[in-house]
């Protein structure tokens, strides 16, 4: 476990991987505007580290050579089961921006969610796996009670 944590174990790196995988983000600007409050210098550093460790690649936009798109590598997409379980676990134990129904559907359909995540990656489909929740207060997921 310590090798894994050394490679991607800080908060920001995992959030970047999540945003690539689940939210369909691709650009520095999208990560910066994600609402997490990451400073530009930290974002730049984490993107470089994720690229250096082989989790992501940086590709120059074909239509605009000034723009860089980030993409998960095979190594990065292999984190999908881990990211899914962290999303479910977090929503089970804390308040999140995702409605209970969304998390419950992901929890119930783990295999299908993972298949769809990999399909989107293979086809370079950046459609978000999770929709953006416009009002976090409305979409607040209440801590689930143990039954």
By DSSP, the count of extended strands is 2
Residue stretches low in confidence (pLDDT < 50, at least 5 long) are 134-147
How many helical stretches?
8
Domains (count): 1
- Spatial separation of the terminal alpha carbons: 31 Å
What is CATH's topology name? Arc Repressor Mutant, subunit A
The structure class reads mainly alpha
- Mean pLDDT across residues: 85
Radius of gyration: 15 Å
Helix percentage: 40-55%
**CATH homologous superfamily caption:** Winged helix-like DNA-binding domain superfamily/Winged helix DNA-binding domain
SSE sequence, one letter per element:
HHHHEEHHHH
Tell me the strand order in the biggest sheet.
1-2
CATH second-level architecture: Orthogonal Bundle
Protein model, in words:
By secondary structure, the protein is mainly α. It has one domain: Arc Repressor Mutant, subunit A. Helix content is 53%, strand content 7%. The chain has helices at 2-8, 11-23, 28-32, 40-52, 74-77, 80-93, 100-108, 110-122, and strands at 56-60, 68-72. A two-stranded antiparallel ribbon has the order 1-2. Helix 6 crosses helix 7 (100-108). The model is unreliable at 134-147 (pLDDT under 50).
């Amino acid at each position: 476990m310590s090798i894994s944590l050394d490679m991607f174990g800080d908060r920001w790196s995992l959030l970047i991987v999540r945003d690539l995988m689940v939210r369909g983000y691709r650009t520095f600007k999208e990560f910066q505007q994600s609402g997490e409050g990451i400073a530009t210098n930290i974002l730049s550093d984490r993107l470089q580290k994720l690229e250096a460790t082989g989790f992501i690649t940086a590709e120059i936009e074909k239509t605009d050579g000034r723009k860089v798109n980030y993409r998960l590598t095979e190594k990065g997409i292999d984190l999908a089961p881990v990211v899914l379980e962290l999303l479910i676990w977090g929503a089970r134990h804390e308040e999140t921006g995702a409605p209970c129904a969304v998390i419950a559907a992901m929890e119930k359909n783990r295999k299908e969610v993972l298949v769809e995540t990999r399909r989107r990656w293979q086809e370079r489909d950046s459609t978000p796996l999770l929709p953006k929740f416009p009002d976090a207060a409305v979409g607040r997921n209440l801590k689930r009670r143990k039954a």
